[in-house]
Amino acid sequence: MDRVLNFINKFFKNSKGDLNIFGKGIKVVIIFIVIKLLIKTTYKIIDKAMHSKKKGILYSDEKKLNTLSIVLKNIIKYIFYFIGLIMILDIFNIKTSSILATAGIGGLVIGIGAQSLVKDIITGFFILFEDQFSVGDYVKIGEYEGIVEELGVRVTKVRDFSGELHIIPNNNIGTVTNRARGAMRALVKVNVAYEEDINRVINVLNEVCKDIRKAHDNIVDGPNILGISDLGEYGIELTIVAKTNPMEQWGIEREIRKRVKEAFDRENIEIPYPKRVIYEKNPKE
Amino acid sequence: MDRVLNFINKFFKNSKGDLNIFGKGIKVVIIFIVIKLLIKTTYKIIDKAMHSKKKGILYSDEKKLNTLSIVLKNIIKYIFYFIGLIMILDIFNIKTSSILATAGIGGLVIGIGAQSLVKDIITGFFILFEDQFSVGDYVKIGEYEGIVEELGVRVTKVRDFSGELHIIPNNNIGTVTNRARGAMRALVKVNVAYEEDINRVINVLNEVCKDIRKAHDNIVDGPNILGISDLGEYGIELTIVAKTNPMEQWGIEREIRKRVKEAFDRENIEIPYPKRVIYEKNPKE
Amino acid sequence: MDRVLNFINKFFKNSKGDLNIFGKGIKVVIIFIVIKLLIKTTYKIIDKAMHSKKKGILYSDEKKLNTLSIVLKNIIKYIFYFIGLIMILDIFNIKTSSILATAGIGGLVIGIGAQSLVKDIITGFFILFEDQFSVGDYVKIGEYEGIVEELGVRVTKVRDFSGELHIIPNNNIGTVTNRARGAMRALVKVNVAYEEDINRVINVLNEVCKDIRKAHDNIVDGPNILGISDLGEYGIELTIVAKTNPMEQWGIEREIRKRVKEAFDRENIEIPYPKRVIYEKNPKE
Amino acid sequence: MDRVLNFINKFFKNSKGDLNIFGKGIKVVIIFIVIKLLIKTTYKIIDKAMHSKKKGILYSDEKKLNTLSIVLKNIIKYIFYFIGLIMILDIFNIKTSSILATAGIGGLVIGIGAQSLVKDIITGFFILFEDQFSVGDYVKIGEYEGIVEELGVRVTKVRDFSGELHIIPNNNIGTVTNRARGAMRALVKVNVAYEEDINRVINVLNEVCKDIRKAHDNIVDGPNILGISDLGEYGIELTIVAKTNPMEQWGIEREIRKRVKEAFDRENIEIPYPKRVIYEKNPKE
Amino acid sequence: MDRVLNFINKFFKNSKGDLNIFGKGIKVVIIFIVIKLLIKTTYKIIDKAMHSKKKGILYSDEKKLNTLSIVLKNIIKYIFYFIGLIMILDIFNIKTSSILATAGIGGLVIGIGAQSLVKDIITGFFILFEDQFSVGDYVKIGEYEGIVEELGVRVTKVRDFSGELHIIPNNNIGTVTNRARGAMRALVKVNVAYEEDINRVINVLNEVCKDIRKAHDNIVDGPNILGISDLGEYGIELTIVAKTNPMEQWGIEREIRKRVKEAFDRENIEIPYPKRVIYEKNPKE
Amino acid sequence: MDRVLNFINKFFKNSKGDLNIFGKGIKVVIIFIVIKLLIKTTYKIIDKAMHSKKKGILYSDEKKLNTLSIVLKNIIKYIFYFIGLIMILDIFNIKTSSILATAGIGGLVIGIGAQSLVKDIITGFFILFEDQFSVGDYVKIGEYEGIVEELGVRVTKVRDFSGELHIIPNNNIGTVTNRARGAMRALVKVNVAYEEDINRVINVLNEVCKDIRKAHDNIVDGPNILGISDLGEYGIELTIVAKTNPMEQWGIEREIRKRVKEAFDRENIEIPYPKRVIYEKNPKE
Amino acid sequence: MDRVLNFINKFFKNSKGDLNIFGKGIKVVIIFIVIKLLIKTTYKIIDKAMHSKKKGILYSDEKKLNTLSIVLKNIIKYIFYFIGLIMILDIFNIKTSSILATAGIGGLVIGIGAQSLVKDIITGFFILFEDQFSVGDYVKIGEYEGIVEELGVRVTKVRDFSGELHIIPNNNIGTVTNRARGAMRALVKVNVAYEEDINRVINVLNEVCKDIRKAHDNIVDGPNILGISDLGEYGIELTIVAKTNPMEQWGIEREIRKRVKEAFDRENIEIPYPKRVIYEKNPKE
C-alpha cells in the first residue's frame, strides 16, 4: 500500500509535497473535461426548458426562442470558460484576485443593470402561478386597461378598447384589477328636480327596473334603486345599481339610461337643468 | 493508543501530514451522505409546512401547493449540490474562489430581484399575525377598497363594490384602513336658505332624527345635529351625524336624506338653489 | 511542568502539532455545550423581555405574545445550530466558504427584505421614548387622522371620526401632528357685503364675541376679531379667532357661526350672495 | 524522470521551493504575452460586433461607430494592462490589496454611475428582440408620443406631430403603447337636447353611420351607435364608435363630426347650448 | 538575554513555537481586562456627553436622559463582550468566520434600518451649528409651518397657528424657510373698476399709505403702490407693498385693507363686482 | 549559476528565506520610484486631456481649466502616496487591513456621494457623442425649455425666452425634446357658431390658407384645414395646421389668427361668445 | 555582514524566525510615533484649509470655524488611534477581524448617513467653481426663488421678495435658474373686444410702445407687439414684449399696463368684460 502511495507521490509531487508539472497538467485536463461536461449539461437543460415552455402560452414564436436559446448558451459558455481559466491560473500559483475583482465589479454592474429583467421573470412566473389573469381577461394594470392579448416571460400585452396595444414589462405590474372574475356592477345616477314627489319617482323607476330585468338575461342581480345618494345643487340624485355578467355592465348602463329617459318623458318627470335664483337690485343701493 | 493513531495517520495521511487519496476519498463520501441527508430533511420540513398551511386559510388550492413544493424542493436540491461540489473541490485543493464569486454575484442579483417576494411574505405574515383584517372585512388599501376575498402568502385579493377584483401584492400594503372594526359614521350635510329661521330648522331636523332612531335598530348612536358647519355661498350648511353598524352607514345616510327631504317639503323649508344678486347697468356708463 | 505539557500534547496532538481525533472530539463537545447554553440564555432573555413588555401598553394579547416568542426562539435556535455546524466543519478542516457564501446571500436578501420591520421597531421605540403621542391623542399622521387607539411595536392604530380604523406601520410615520397638546384654535370667516358699514359690523361681532366668551368655559382665549382678511369678489371677509381646549374647537366654531347668523339677522347685516353687474347690449353692435 | 524534474526545480526554484528570479521572469513574460493576445482577441470581437451591427438598423453613422470602437478598445486595453500589472506584482510577493481596494472603489463608483448605460443597452436589446415597435410605428412612451424615427442602442428617437424630436434614453422606456398594431377606434360623442325624441335621433345617426361606412374603405368596423353614454347637465350624450386602419382614426372622427352636424341641421335636431332655469325673486323676501 | 527569552518561550510556547495553554490563558486574561477597561471608559464618555448636553437646549428632561444613557450603555457593553468572545475563540484556533458573518449581516440590517436615526442626528447637529433657526422663530419646513417649540437631537417640534404641534424628524428637514430673519413684506392687492380714473385712484391710495406709515411704527419700509399688477377680467389690480417687523405683516395687511375700504367708500371708488356683458338673442335665429 | 543565486539569496534573504532588511530596503526604493513615475505619467495624461478639450466647446475658460487640473492632480497624488505607504507597510509585515478598511469606507462614502458627478460626465459625453442637441438649438429638457447656450462636461445651460438662464446638471437630463430638427407645426384652432354654414366657413378658411402660403416662404407645408376637431359647448372647432421652419411656427400661428379674424369680419362669420339658453320660471311653481 | 544580520536576528527574533518581545516592542513604538506625527500633520492641514477658506466668502463667522475645526480634529484623532490600536494588536498575533467588522459596519452606517453631507459639499464646490450664481443674483432653485444672500459649504441662503429666508442644503440644488445673467423679458397680454378694428388697435399700441421706449433707458430691446397670441372666449389677446435690464422687467410690465390703459381710455378701445349670448326660452317648449 505504502509503496503505491509513495510511487504516486513521487510521480506527481516534488520533494516539498507540492504538485509538480505532471500533477498540475493532469489537474488542468480534469478541469477542462469537467467544464466541457457542465456546458453540455446546461445546454441540454436550456433546450428542455425551451421546449416545455413552447407547449405553454409563453413565446409562441419559434424563431425568437432559438435566438434566445443561442444568446443564453453563449453567455453560459463564456462564464464557464472564465471560471475554468481562473482555476487553471490558481493551479499554477498565479494570483487571480485582480481578475476576479475586475470581473466581479463588471458582473455586479451588469447584474444590477439586468435586475429589472430578473424581476420581470419572477413577477411573470407568479402571475401565471397565481392565475392573476389569463389571456382574454379584461384587466387594469396601473394606468393601463384592456384585454390581455399575451402573457409573456418578460412583458404582458394589453389591448385597449381604443385599439392601442400596451406592452407592459411584468416588473411594472403591481396591483392588478381583474374585471372578468365575477359579476360586474352597472351603476346609473339619475337627477330629478327638487319639485318632484320623491316617492312617485321611485315608483316609476321601480317599474323601469322590473322591465329591464325581464328584457335582459345577462343581468345577475336585477337593477335596484339604492335611494337618494345626494341632495345636490340642482336636484335629488338617485342611484340605480345592477349586477351583470362581466363586460356587459356598460351595455346595461346605457340601456337603463335610455329606459329611464323614456319613462320620465312619459310620466313628465323633470331632469333638472342647472337652476339659479336671481335677485335683481339697483346698482349699489 | 499511540500506535492506533499512528496507524490511522499512516493510512490516511502521507508523510507531509496532508490527507492522501484514501483520506480524501472518505471525506468526499461523508460530504455526499451529509448532503443527501440534509436534502431529505429539508424536503420533510417543506412537506410539513405545506400541510400545516393547508389547514389554514392560505392557498386552499391543492394543485398549486404541489407545484410550489416541487419548485421549492428543486431549488433547494441544486443549492445543496452546489455546496457539496465546492466542498469536494476544496478537499482536492482546487481553488473555488472564481466559482464562488460567479455564483455569489448571480445569487445576489437574483436575490435582490426576488426581494419583493421576501417582503410580500413578511408583510403577509404580519397582516395575519396582527389580525389587521380578515376575509370578509371591508378595507381600504392604498387607492383600492372593497371586501377582502383572500388573504394569501404573496397577494391579497379585494373585491370592489363594482365587482372588480383587485389583486394586491402584500408588499404594496402599507397603511390599511379597516372599515369593519367598530361602529361607522353616517354623515349628511343639509343646506338651508339664509332666509330660514335657523332654530325652527333645527327643531324640524331633531324630529326627523328621533323618527329615524326609532325606525332603525342598526344605529349605534342616534342621528344628531352637530350644528352649523358652514356659512356657505348660497345657504347655511347643517351636519347630521349617526353611528351605525359597519357597512350600514350608506343605507342610513340615504334614509336620512330621504326623510329630511320629506320633512322640508312638509314644513316648507327651502333647500336653496344657487343664488345670485344682479345689478343691471348701461354699458360703460 | 514540561512533562505534563508534553503528555497533553502527545495525547491530543499528532506528531505534526495538529490536533488528532481525540483533541478534535473534545473541541466538538465543547462547542456543542456552549451552543446549548447560549440558546438557553437567549430563551430566558426573550421570556424576560416578553413579560416586561406585557406590563406595558404594547401587545396586550397573551396568545399573540406566545406565538411571537415561539417564532423568535425557533429562528434563534436554528441560527445557533448553523453557527455550531460551521465551527465543527472548520475543526475537521473542511472549507465552509461555500456554505457561508450561500447562507450569507440568503441572509442578506431576507435581512434587506425584513428591513422595514427593523425600521418599524426603531421608529416605534422613539415614538414611545419621545412621547410623540399617546393612546387617546387626536393626531394626524401623513394623510390619516384620528384618535390613537393602540401604539404597538410594529403598527399604530388610529381611529378616524368616520369610525374607520387606520393601521399604520410605524415605519410609515414621518412627521406627526399632535392636536391634543395645548390649546386649539377655532377660526370662523364671515363675509359681509361691501355695502355694509365696516365699523358697525365689527361692533356687532364684538358683542357676539363677548357673549360667547361668557357662555363657554372651554375657551382659553376669547373669540377676537382679527380684522379684514380679504377684500373678496362678493364681499368683505372678516376673521374671528378663539383658543379652546383640545377637541372643543369645532364645537366653538359651530357656536360662533350660529350666533353670528342670529346677530346679523337681528341687526339686518347682509351676508352677500354672489353678485354680478350686468351690461345688456344688442348683439354685435 | 526524476532527474529532469530535479533539474527544472533547481533552475527555476531556490532551495526553499519558491521560484527564483529566473522562474519569476518566465512567468512575467508569459503573463505579458497572454495579456497581449487577450487584447487582440477582444479587439477582433469588438470589430466584428460593430460590423454586424452596421448591417442592422442601429447606428447607421460610420464615423460614430469608429469613435465608439476606439473608446471601447482603449478602456479594455487599460483594464487588461491593470490586471497584468497586479499579477506581476503578485509574483514578486508585493501585496497589491491596497491597489485593488483603490481601483475597486473607483471601478464600483464609475460602474454604478454607468449603470443607466447598461440598462439602456439591455432595454434596447429587448425592445428589438420582442419587436415592441419598429421605425415608423406611432407609439406612446411615457408622456411622449409620435412616430419612431430611430431605434438605437442607447436612445430611441420619436418625432411628435408638432415636429418636435423626443430623444428618449431606452432606460426611461417602461410601458410602451403601440398604436400601429391592429385597428384603431374612432370615437365621437354627440350631445342632443333633452327635448329631442331619442329614438328619432338614433335613427338619423344610424343613417349617417351607414353613409360613412359606404364612403370610406379605411374603416374596419363600421361606425355604430353605442347608446346613451351619459344623461348630462345640458343634454343626452350619444357615443358613436368605429374601427379604422391605424392613423386614420382622427380623420374618420372629423368626418363623423361633420356629417352629424350636417344631418342635424337637415333634421332640425338641436345640439344644446348650456341651459339654465332662472327663478326671479325680490331681494330677501 | 537568550536564556531569559528561552525560558519565556519554553514556559509559554510548545515545541512547535505556538503558544501553549498557559500562554493562551494569559492572553485571555489580558483581553478580559482590556474589554472591561474599554467599557468603563465608554461609560464615562457617555455620562460626560449627557451632562454637557443637559446644559444645552437639547432634551431638558432628566428622566429621558437616564433611560437613553442606560440603553446606550447596554448596547455598547454587549458589543464589547461580543468582540472579546470572538478574540478569545480566535486564540484557541476556533474559526469564527461563521459567527462574524451571522453577526455582520444582522448588524448591517439593523444598521441600515437605523440609518434614518443617524441622519436625524447629523441634520440636527447642522441645524444647530449653522443656526438655521432657533426656538421661537416662525419657520416653514416642508408643508409644515409654525413657531419652533423645541429643537431636539432627533426631532424638531413646530407649533402651528391652529395650535397643532408638528413633530418633525430632523431627517425630514430639507429646505428651511425662516420667517423671523429680517423684515417681512405685507402685500395687499386692490381691484378697481375699469371705469375709474387710474391716476385719481393712485392719488387716493397714496394718501392712505401715508396715513398708515404715520400710524404704525412696526413698519420698516412704508406702504408703497407698486403699480398695475394685472389688467384683470373685471377690473384693474393695484398692488400695495410694505416692509414690517417679522410676524407683524398680517396685521399691517389687515390694516391696509380696512383703510383702503374706508377711503374708497369716502371717495366713491368702485371695487368691482364680477361683470358680464349680455347679448340677448332669439333662440336660433 | 547556482552560486550567483546563492549569493543573491544570502545577501537579500535571511536563513528562513524571508527578505532581510537590505532586500526590503531595495523593494521600498523601487516602489518609491514607480509611484513617482506613475504620478508624472498621470499628470501628463491630465494635461493632454485638458488641452484637447480646450479645443472643443467644453469649458472655454482657461482659468477654470487650470484650477480643475490642479485639484485633479492633487487628488491623484495623494491616492498614489497612500497606495505606496500601504505597500511599504506590507513589506515590513505590518498588517494594513485596519488602514485599508478605514480608507475603504471613507472612499466608498465619498465615491457614492460623488456619483452624481460621474453620471453628469457620462451623460454629458453621450449628449455630445449622439449629437442630441448642439449650442443654439431650441430644446426642452424636463420642465425647462429654451435655447442651448453652453454644453459643458457637468452642466448644460439653456436660456429661456423670458431671459432666464437654466443651469441643468447633465445628470438631470433624461428625455430631450429637440425643436430644431426638422419642420415644426403651427396649429390654430378656430371656433365658429353652430348657426354658420360649415361648408361656407371651410371655403373662406381655404382662401385664407392660400393667401398665407403665398405670402410666407418659411412655410414648409402650407396651412391646411384638418376639419372639425370638436363639437364644443358654444361652437364648432376647426383646426388649421401648417409646417414651418423651426422657430417660425409661433409667428405663423399669429399670422393665421390675424388673417382668419380679418376674413371672418369681412365675411360676417361669427366667432361665438359663450352662449346660454335661459328658461325663466316662477319660484317653486 | 552576515554576522551583523545574525546578531540583529538573534536579538529581535526567536529561533522560529518570528519577532520576539523586543522586536515587537520596537514596532509598537514606531507605530506610536508615526500615528502621532500623522495626527499633527492632519491638524496642520485642517488649520491651513480653515484659514484659506476664511479669506473667501464661505463661513465668515470665526467662532463657527473654530468649533468645526475642533470637531474635525477630534474625529480624525480617534480614527488614527483606532488604526494604531488594531496594528498593535496585529503585531501580537491577536486576530482583529471582529473589531474591524464591528467598526466597519458602524463606519459604513454612519458614512451612508453622512452621505448627504458629502453631496452638499461636492455640489457646493461645483456651484462656486462653475459660477452658477453669486451673492446678490436673483435665482430660482426648485420651488424657491429670491436673491442669494449666502453661498456656504453646506447650505445656500436665498431671500424671497416676501422677506422669507430660504435655507437650502446644496444637495437639494439641482437645476438652477439664474435671472441675473442677461436681459430679462417683460411680457404684457392685452385683451381687446372682437368688435374692435384689429389694425387700429395695433397702431395705438405701437404708439404706446414708442413712448415707453423713449421714457425708459433700462429697456434693452424696445416693447414690440408680437401679434395675436390667442382668439379667446371674450376677445382678441395681443402680446407686447420688451427686453429689460435684470430685475427691471416687473416695473416695465406695470408701466406698459398703465400706458395701455390710458391710451385705450383716450382712444375708446374696449377691454372686454366676460360676454355671454342669451337665448330666452319658455320652460320645456
UniProtKB/TrEMBL annotation, chains A, B, C, D, E, F, G:
Q: How does it sit in the membrane?
A: Multi-pass membrane protein
List residues traversing the bilayer. 21-39, 75-92, 99-118
Give the UniProt subcellular location, in the record's own words: Cell membrane
Annotated ranges, domain Mechanosensitive ion channel MscS C-terminal: 188-271
Q: Which domain of life is it from?
A: Bacteria
Q: Which residues form a coiled coil?
A: none
Question: Residue ranges of the Mechanosensitive ion channel transmembrane helices 2/3 domain?
Answer: 74-115
**GO cellular component labels:** plasma membrane
Q: Which GO terms describe its molecular function?
A: mechanosensitive monoatomic ion channel activity
Domain Mechanosensitive ion channel MscS, first and last residues per copy: 117-178
Q: Which UniProt keywords apply?
A: Cell membrane, Membrane, Transmembrane, Transmembrane helix
Report the Pfam families cross-referenced here.
Answer: MS_channel_1st, MS_channel_2nd, MS_channel_3rd
Q: Which family does it belong to?
A: Belongs to the MscS (TC 1.A.23) family.
UniProt-recorded name of the protein: Small conductance mechanosensitive channel
Organism expressing this protein natively = Keratinibaculum paraultunense
Recite the lineage of the species. Bacteria, Bacillati, Bacillota, Tissierellia, Tissierellales
